[in-house]
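To make this tangible, this section ends with a sequence with its structure tokens:
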Amino acid sequence: MSNFKPTNYTLRCVATGHEFADHGWDLADNECAEPSLVRAIYEKKKIEVKEELDFYRFCDWLPVRRMLKGSAAPVTFRSKGLAAHLGLENLYITLNGYSPAHGAKMTTCSFKETEAYSVCGRMSDDEKRVLVVASAGNTARAFAKVCSENNIRLLLSVPADNLNALWFEKPLNPCVKLIACEQGGDYFDAIRLGDMALQSPMFYAEGGAKNIARRDGMATTMLSAATTIGRIPDYYFQAVGSGTGAIAAWEANLRLIEDGRFGDNTAKLMVSQNAPFVPMYDAWRADSREMLPYETHRARRDASIIDAKVLSNRKPPYSIKGGLYDALKATDGDVLVVTNAQERKAARLFEELEGIDIHPAAAVAVASLIKAVDGGQVDKKATIMLNITGAGEKRFKAEHDIVYLQPEKIFPLNVEADAVVEAVEAMFSE
């Protein structure tokens, strides 16, 4: 939009409180005395929601320079079916996905769109380098859609075992290219492959959890809930792979308290993992800031077993200052575990009661809510936010012709960096 005026903000090191200007793509702790996330401090303290701007309705608290076309916002509604089934008086569902009946219009059916529209909106429109995104699937699909529709050059790195997640409603702009690590590789291998490409000056990193735009984009789920309900929830339920969405919810909670119109409570973060891949659960149960040893062979085996493969992050931002460990401590939160069987049962129940098909990761969150209610961990009168991070894919595919993005090249797990750099530079030098 030509009349769009970016919001003013500075960056603050979580560990030290040191505040500094955003020089354009600050990601990490380069101005911090110790490893730490940095956080955006927005000049505007009271958010004005601009409904007509879709995702960018929350632009007061987004570090974006421009608005991109094609966006959709999270939708929050009061649950009837699931709430009645569980005996909950104030259960609210924040839906990220495709459900016309609820006004949910994310055509990738994943809340990763909230990251992509924020991260790409933060980019300068004259950026010449190629953005690199490593993903287990959903993030790649979201960034591919946004970059394709807005002519932004993008290199995706995805495990070959997850290529079925790269589906779209129409062929993509050739500005988007895909590479993959061979079968048997996981999300961490895809990250390693992307890091090799980044050795070339032609490419630059999206940044993951360290990118304020990614976290503040995901924070729109909490903003959707609080502005719809009229208050900060008492509980926040979400399945986590990296935990970035939960960190973002905590950060949004702090801004909402400062706003002053949504209460002064802190939502208890109730995050969940899909067993047997539970590294953050293990660390949390040991009350350890540091992640516990997790052998590569075990990680790959466990990642291959779980239904919610997007939750298989071996190096999440758990330990870093301002990361998930701190978020859980600050909110008196907890980490729960859900099996595949429990996840599948929860998915069927949610579709039956709410009329929406959901992704396995979202079903993990539903199952964790069921377990917490059955275990007496939540007050049934409390205001509960259930973040459904992916939904409506079955319906969307039934209503649309689907195409799949094919990789330009599949690399072996033991590939050398020089070979990767040579290949990806050739892809974008045509």
Remarks:
- The first strand starts at residue 9 and ends at 13.
- Residues 244-259 form the longest helix (16 residues).
- The mean pLDDT is 94.
